[in-house]
Structures are given as structure tokens and as C-alpha cells.
Amino acid sequence: IRIIEGREKPIDTLAKNILLFGEGADDDAGDEGRGGVIKYKGKTTLDISHLDAELREPYLIFHGLRLDQLQALQQDIRDYQGLEAHSPNREFWLALAVVAKDEVARASALYASRGVHQAVSQEVEGMLGGKSVQELEGMKEDIQKKVERGGRDVDVDYWAHILDEMEVYRARAFLREQHQRMLLKQLEKLEAKRAELAVLKKEREAVRAGRKGEGGEEEGEEEGEEEGEEGEEGEGGRRE
Q: CA gyration radius for the chain?
């Protein structure tokens, strides 16, 4: 509703693609909040299918926000988690909650208390950054086995930290992959619209061609009648 009224908040930006292309968005439009249709002020049904998709990956919405804004967004995400607890999109909001918690911690004194050295952070980024959900889950399993085996050469604290960070990287990877699927739906929607317009164009051209054809036949009939009348007049003159 805030999007339609021009009062968009960060949480609305996150929710927009879910409303347009999330799991269940192609269901019956009578289902509130799905199929590009929402209930406005409890009465009027509004079509939101004309809205453009958000092109930024969901976790990028957090960038540039102050601590108080991050905390407000974190609470909004928690509210959505409650609303979507039994919906097909619950994992989307769960992943956002994981990222929000990390972003709030990074922006506050809580992150400093972790004692995370910058070099370690860079090493974690190099190890986990850009990995898919499947790749991260495989790495998690390998690390867990390494920690369970133990040994003098295994730094348990280091690998425990890696596992903690992996949850955030997995959440981001899930959101990235989900976002790509939504953009694909947007592309399919645009291609379907283009095909629909092409069919309409052909139908209009066929109608115009039919009208021209009918006009030509009528002109031909009129010319034939005129020639017939002239022929009769000529014969009448010869008789006289």
C-alpha cells in the first residue's frame, strides 16, 4: 500500500518482488496479496501487477542504512516472519532475518565485541563469498566432520567462527538465488506480454485488411452497375 501511495520503506522494497513473483504469486488472484492483487484499506482490491521488479539483490537493501534504520527494518522483517510463518515464502523471510541480525551487529558495538580480526574477515570472504547454497552446505558438512575428528592441528574456535559466518553467507546465497528466479519470472512475464501484443497486432491488421477487401468489393460492384447503366443507355440511343 505504501508503494502505491509513494511512501515506500525498505521493508516494502523487500516485499514487492515477493508480492509480484514469490511462491504462490501466480495463484488465484482472489487470494489476498497474491497474483499481483492486494486488499487496500480492507475494501478496495488493487492491481499491483504493473509495478516494476526490484533489481537489487535483497541483502543490498541493508547497505547505507543507519543503525536505527537497520533495527527498524529488522523488526519489520520479524513482523513479516510472523505473517508468513506458514506460507511458501517463509524461508525467504528467515534468510532476511539472518542477514538483518548480522547487519545490525556489524553496525553496533556488538560486532566489535566479537573480536573478529579484519584479516580473518577477509579470509572468510575469500572462502565463502560468491558460493551457492549447495556449495556452502557441502563445505559446512566437511568442516563439521573436521571439527568432530579434532586433533592438535584443528583450531576449533576458528572453524566454529567459520560455521557461524557460513549461516550468514548461506542466507545471502539463498536470497541471491531466489532473486534470480524472481527476475526470470519478470522476464517471462514481459515475454508473455510481448507475445500477447503481437497477437493483438496481427488481429487488428487482419481486421483492417478485411475492411479494405470489403470496400474494394463494394467499389467493384458500383463500377459494374455504372457500366451496365451506360451500356443500356447506348443501346437505347441506337434503337432511337
A: 32
**Summary mean pLDDT of the chain:** 77
Render pLDDT for 143-197 as a digit per residue (tens, 0 to 9). Answer: 999 888 877 888 888 899 899 999 999 999 999 999 888 888 778 777 888 888 8
Q: pLDDT, tens digit, for every residue of 43-53?
A: 445 555 566 66
